[in-house]
Amino acid sequence: ITGYGDSPSAEMVVTAQGRVAFLEHVLQELGMQRPVLISPSMSGRFALPFLLAQGDRLSGFVPIAPVGTKDYTAEQYQQVQTPTLILYGDRDTGLAPQALQNLQHLPEHRVVVLPGAGHACYLDKPEDFHRALLAFLRQLK
């Protein structure tokens, strides 16, 4: 099955390697140089393998309780030098604690917890989310 126009086949995204290649393709097509990758929830299946394989191509990484963090080791995370803002809502008691437990091994990270926000903290507390995101973006080189 293919998408509209030049979309890659769905088979491409079955493996972590394929998802890395897919994200590479998207960034290349958009002409993006060293973007900040924001990864809420299910997008972790794409963002995390990309971060570990090609984190040096990113200016920053913002995981928001992404899935798949337990698929990688502390040692793998420790190799990543990408500045990271670990962001989540304090009412996300499912995925957020597990993601934090794994992502805290990233050496260049900071954590922001949004009070009163759930899993989709950017929807629950958009002003707080944007404030934290903009502060992170401002301090990137």
Give a short overview.
With 141 residues, the chain is of the alpha/beta class. It is built from 6 helices and 4 strands. It has helices spanning 16-30, 44-54, 74-78, 95-103, 121-124, 126-138, and strands at 36-40, 60-64, 84-89, 109-114.
Task: Describe this protein's structure.
The chain is α/β, with parallel strands linked by helices and 141 residues long. The chain has a single domain (34-138), classed as Rossmann fold (3-Layer(aba) Sandwich). The protein is 40% helix and 16% strand. The chain contains six helices and four strands. A two-stranded parallel ribbon has the order 1-2. Strands 3-4 form a two-stranded parallel ribbon. Strand 1, helix 2 and strand 2 form a beta-alpha-beta unit. The mean pLDDT is 91.
Structural class: alpha/beta
Tell me how many strands there are.
4
Query: What is the count of helical runs?
Result: 6
Level of helix content?
Answer: 40-55%
How are the strands of the largest sheet arranged?
A: 1-2
Ranges with pLDDT <50 over ≥5 residues? Answer: none
The CATH class assignment is Alpha Beta
Keywords: Cytoplasm
GO cellular component, one term: cytoplasm
InterPro entries: AB_hydrolase_1 (IPR000073), AB_hydrolase_fold (IPR029058)
Pfam families: Abhydrolase_1
Question: Keywords, please?
Answer:
single chain; alpha/beta; two-stranded parallel sheet; two-stranded parallel ribbon; 6 helices; 16% strand; globular
What is this structure's SSE topology?
Layout: H1 16-30, E1 36-40, H2 44-54, E2 60-64, H3 74-78, E3 84-89, H4 95-103, E4 109-114, H5 121-124, H6 126-138
Parallel strand pairs: 1-2, 3-4
